[in-house]
Amino acid sequence: xTDDQQIIARAAALRLAQEQALGPRLVTEVEQxxxxxxxxxxxxQYIDPVSIGALIVSIAGLGWTIYTDLRKKSxxxxxxxxxxxxxxxxxxxxxxxxxxxxxxxxxxxxxTVRIGSDSPPLEK
Length: 124
Prior knowledge:
Elements: H1 3-17, H2 26-36, H3 49-73, H4 79-89, H5 98-118
């Protein structure tokens, strides 16, 4: 996982931890998932709270890949485009509350675009 992907995951966790649905432990859960370096990748594991951290890390990785791919083709994509592409490409555990899933994707996409806008231009 790249430094940018880790920054995105941490930033998203900080924002989402302030929301009641996911709670303050989310930052710790994301740090645990980052320390595990993606070894926990089974989609059914995303239901328990620690696995929500792994889900955020996984979506941050995918979001960054999507962002950089789109950015190579044209101008930097806006967050809604990144979020929509994540939703299309990433199958999440069906037991995860759709509102929580949507919020995670939205925040990760916003953080991806924010971090991406600070990075140097990509070669086409």
